[in-house]
Design brief:
The complex is a heterotrimer. Chain A is mostly helical. Chain A is 82% helix and 0% strand. Chain A contains 15 helices and no strands. Chain A starts with a helix and ends with a helix. Chain C has a single domain, classed as ABC transporter involved in vitamin B12 uptake, BtuC. Helices cover 75% and strands 3% of the residues of chain C. A two-stranded antiparallel sheet of chain C has the order 1-2. In chain C, a hairpin with a 2-residue loop joins strand 1 and strand 2. The model of chain C has no long low-confidence stretch (mean pLDDT 87). The chains are: A mainly alpha, B alpha/beta, C mainly alpha. At the A-C interface, helix 2, helix 5, helix 6, helix 12 and helix 14 of A face helix 5, helix 6, helix 8, helix 10 and helix 11 of C.
């Protein structure tokens, strides 16, 4: 369980760097809430509790919701916040409906599914850690392999395109990485609070670092530490959901960094 | 279209949906000039730059950049966008940003090494920013940020520099440094085309001009093309122009601000 | 009258309609102002207020709770603005940092200290619209279900406020030149709106929970904005669409045996699809 928490914390925290710098914190929130129908759908399709199926489902519905928001913004001229709110609201509503459907069915499946609301790290099976590890490797691997490209696409996409970088592809890749960052933590942190674990470590890291690489790995470290601390603390109290504890730890870290961080915190201005 | 021109457009029109941004623009920028594109707000100057770079699709007409399609040649162009196009609250120092100009050379998987950082530093020295190489970009002044952008273009050693309002809101020292670099590059045989915001300094800094207000009103060598009639036509009668002649004592901080 | 108030179907549907209408009313203003996600921040922040008020006073419902929860909703936005204003965090990240933290704290307190009380973390998230008919208060000799009564009051308050101040609240939003105005606009009218959004979120909590409130607030308003060109028009269409979704949602949910609140929220997609199709057809014509 601890290993799983560290894996997901590091991955979400590190990949969250790009989301925060691209001002896509909200997109992460949409993907997380809209992951609920995918989690339930994956369970229904697999016929049993299968983490790979549920995470795959989460990935799909999260991306669909983000895609819906994109269509609303670009084809129908809907303002971006409203479009994202639409994806979030409808995605979650669908998830609620599907969840209630499963709850009415005979069998014990729904208990495991409900833990995806607020997260339950203790529910992580040994086999799950392998899945999480795989996702982490893919996510972090792609990010580090293409780090330079992602950096230019994040910092100055217009210039990058003029320079000959494949910005449209990189944008899609960054969206995919955000989806991975969100999805990997859903079991432990839950759909409602997962986006905070993508945002808080990156915000904290920004106050402490001077380069994108440093921010990336610092955010990963802080995310991993927060997830671990949260998982252990919530396991110590029976029945306590993991998500709220993890998010409180990560938020506290961010708060501290904002107050004291040498880069742009109070200390820097003194 | 004229071959040998740095930039050539024929009947270029661009439409953003709520009206044409550019209409039937046939521009020919000769190689080796320091050229300016001027016009009032909303005239389509930035749009022209983007169309020339192939970043926006024309509704009509053609664009040739360095004699070929923009998508093919734009990597040989040093593009210096407006400062406002970037969030400067990004974790990077000046040297980092300039080094990004070399990423394409390196390819998607290679990391920049010592050699690249040395080249970036040299470019920063050229724009007079060598001593600020390790400063976080969010802590730089507007003029310093502009010079970083220019250094990023320099490091590519491009054939053409395309700059979008490079001197707007820039301190005198930065302005002098930027001009010095552009002149030096022209002396090396490069072409410079800049969207310029200040009619008062037009004659001092540029030798070629295009006057734009959705349509192209005039183009050519400064002395020939810049007439009062053309100015009145481009700016719709409200021309923000001081008396003729040098209007700025560069470096002394003295300026006759154009009526705006 | 009493038989009607005892009829589960009626009470649940009425609650749904009142929730949807109130949410759509305030949501319309926020959507037009470009502040749609304020609903998300406020409704989550409200939970912190509920938890804090419970800790301090032991109250689980009533005016004290209403006050505390509403105040927390407003506080969430104020804190977010302060953080974004500091310059160290961009607005989207500030939002994504503050309200989840407050919500997490609230949920934590509730799960640790409010175990035996009916307000639990599950209800807070999803609501229990199917059970709103249980809690009743005596009024004019009748036994009236509490939740829809409160919602009715909130709806009236919302309607009066918005109709009185709508011009001031959305000044410039329909003018393309000024349409770029973003962020929280200062002014007493804006503060009043914020308080009402928080109040509406609190009232809606029992019925549909924190997140579905967001769906009712935003989706019908987005649909309305696609077809209406004035604030009053947007409000009218949004409220109508939201109410229709609520009315249709109850029988559908019952027949499929799924979440009532969820179905009502999901059905707001129908007017959105219709409005989108109409808009797309018009623009290509």
């Amino acid at each position: 369980m601890a290993a799983g928490a560290v894996l997901l914390g590091v991955t979400s925290g590190a990949l969250g760097t790009f989301a925060v710098l691209r001002r896509q914190s909200l997109v992460g929130d949409v993907m997380a809430h809209a992951a609920l129908p995918g989690v339930v759908g994956g369970y229904l399709l697999a016929g049993e509790r299968s983490l790979p199926a549920m995470l795959a489902g989460a990935l799909v519905t999260g991306l669909v919701a983000a895609g819906l928001a994109w269509v609303l913004t670009h084809r129908l001229k809907v303002k971006s916040e409203a479009a994202l709110g639409t994806g979030l609201g409808l995605g979650f509503a669908l998830g609620v409906v599907l969840l209630s459907y499963v709850q009415r069915q005979p069998g014990a499946g729904s208990a495991g599914l409900e833990s995806f609301l607020y997260g339950q790290a203790a529910a992580t099976l040994r086999a799950d850690v392998l899945v999480l590890g795989g996702v982490a490797v893919v996510g972090l691997g792609v990010a580090t392999l293409l780090f330079g490209e992602l950096k230019v696409a994040t910092f100055d996409p217009v210039w990058a395109r003029a320079r000959g970088h494949r910005v449209a592809l990189l944008d899609a890749g960054l969206t995919g990485l955000l989806a991975v960052a969100v999805v990997i933590g859903l079991q432990a942190v839950g759909v409602v609070l997962m986006s905070a674990l993508v945002v808080a470590p990156a915000v904290a890291a920004r106050q402490l670092t001077r380069s994108l690489g440093a921010m990336f790995w610092t955010a990963g470290a802080l995310g991993g530490a927060s997830a671990l601390a949260g998982a252990l603390l919530s396991a110590a109290t029976p029945g306590l959901a993991t998500g709220p504890v993890v998010v409180l730890v990560a938020s506290a870290v961010a708060g501290l960094a904002l107050l004291l961080g040498p880069e742009r915190g109070r200390a820097a201005e003194a | 279209m004229v071959t040998g021109a740095a930039v050539a457009t024929a009947g270029l029109s661009v439409d953003y949906g709520d009206g044409p941004a550019l209409r039937d623009v046939s521009l020919t920028v000769p190689a080796g000039v320091i050229g300016a594109v001027v016009g009032p707000n909303g005239a389509g100057k930035s749009t022209l730059v983007k169309a020339v770079l192939g970043l926006v699709a024309p509704a009509a007409g053609r664009v040739a950049l360095l004699g070929d399609r923009p998508q093919r040649t734009r990597h040989r162009v040093g593009y210096v966008p407006q400062r406002s196009s970037v969030d400067w609250d990004f974790p990077a120092d000046a040297r980092d940003v300039v080094t990004m100009g070399l990423y394409r050379e390196l390819g998607p998987f290679r990391r920049p090494g010592r050699a690249e950082r040395e080249r970036a530093l040299a470019a920063l020295e050229t724009v007079g920013m060598g001593h600020l190489a390790r400063r976080q970009i969010g802590r730089l002044s507007g003029g310093q940020q502009q010079r970083v952008f220019l250094a990023r273009a320099l490091v590519q050693d491009p054939e053409l520099y395309l700059l979008d309002e490079p001197l707007a809101g820039v301190d005198a020292a930065s302005e002098a440094a930027i001009l010095a670099v552009l002149r030096a590059e022209r002396a090396r045989g490069k072409t410079v085309l800049a969207v310029h915001h200040d009619l008062g300094t037009l004659r001092d800094y540029f030798d070629w001009v295009a006057l734009l207000n959705v349509t192209l009103r005039a183009q050519g060598p400064i002395d020939a093309a810049l007439t009062d009639e053309v100015l009145a036509d481009t700016y719709g009668g409200r021309v923000p122009l001081p008396p003729r002649g040098p209007a700025r004592a560069a470096g002394a901080g003295l300026e006759v601000a154009p009526a705006r | 009258m009493q038989p009607l108030l005892d009829d589960v179907a009626f009470v649940v549907t009425a609650t749904g309609v009142l929730t949807a209408a109130a949410a759509a009313l305030v949501g319309s203003v926020l959507v037009v102002r470009g502040q749609a996600m304020l609903t998300d921040a406020v409704s989550h922040g409200v939970v912190f207020g509920i938890a804090a008020t419970f800790l301090v006073t032991g109250a689980v419902s009533g005016p004290v709770q209403l006050l505390g929860a509403t105040a927390a909703g407003v506080l969430t936005v104020v804190l977010t603005q302060a953080l974004a204003g500091s310059g160290r965090v961009r607005r989207d990240a500030a939002t994504g940092l503050v309200f989840p933290a407050l919500f997490a704290a609230g949920v934590l307190v509730l799960s640790l200290f409010a175990r035996d009380v009916h307000v639990d973390t599950h209800t807070v998230l999803l609501g229990e619209i199917g059970f709103v008919w249980l809690e009743r208060v005596p009024l004019l000799g009748l036994e009236v279900p509490r939740a829809p009564l409160v919602l009715l009051g909130v709806l009236v308050l919302d309607a009066l406020y918005v109709l009185a101040f709508h011009e001031r609240l959305v000044a410039g939003s329909f003018d393309p030149v000024h349409a770029r105005l973003q962020g929280l606009r200062p002014g007493a009218a804006s503060l009043g709106l914020l308080v009402l959004v928080a109040l509406t979120a609190v009232a809606a909590l029992d019925a549909v929970g924190v997140v579905l409130f967001v769906a009712f607030a935003i989706v019908p308003a987005v649909a309305a904005r696609l077809v209406a060109g004035s604030m009053v028009g947007v409000i009218a269409v949004a409220v109508a669409a939201a109410s229709a979704a609520a009315v249709a949602g109850y029988p559908l949910a019952v027949s499929l045996d799924v979440s009532i609140g969820g179905t009502m929220a999901l059905l707001t997609a129908v007017p959105l699809a219709a409005a989108s199709a109409w808009r797309l057809a018009r623009s290509s014509a």
